[in-house]
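Good day; I would like, with your permission, to put a structural problem before you. A protein sequence and the structure tokens that stand for its backbone fold form the material at issue. I would ask you to consider whether the tokens describe a fold that such a sequence might reasonably adopt. I set the record out below, with my sincere thanks for your time.
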Amino acid sequence: MNLLLIIGVGIGLVIAVSIASFVVINFDLVSYTATGSETYSSAGTPVGRALVVYSPGLSGAGKESAAKIAKALNGRGYAVDLAGVRSPASANAASYDVVVIGGPLYWGKMCPSVAEYMKNVAVRDGARLGVFGTTGTDKYMEADFATLSEQVTSSLSSSSNRLTIPIKLILTDKVDANCAEFVSTVLE
């Protein structure tokens, strides 16, 4: 009898945790913590202004990658605003020379808050634009990249006059190298 009770409680806990995880991910509850912003000033006269918008994701990899991208852009002479997807600083992307948007991928798709931001963002003509997605494994990279590319194209192509938008999947175990490579691609 005690064994059945323990098994029942264990199964109940697994179901409860699974449902809670599903709700947190699908309703993108973590994005509601992305309300802050930071500014990285350039050492001299800036070559331009950059905005990096992120959703942190469950593991924080989205924010970590965004911060590394912001620092890399700053190292290239840009004055950079690093802004959570729900922060007031992310609202006016049209005044920036470079706009980078990203966050975690769940089941190959960008998290809902970043997907919604991409649909509504207005970027000025001539601005450079890039999108990154964070993932913990390279197991599904090809399929995730295809899905993310499709999502980016359908969301951003109408709001910008770009034929191609640099997209990068950032592996959590290769953040530094992936972010540096991505910044180089965006600035080409």
Strands lie at 37-40, 48-54, 78-84, 98-106, 109-110, 128-135, 167-171.
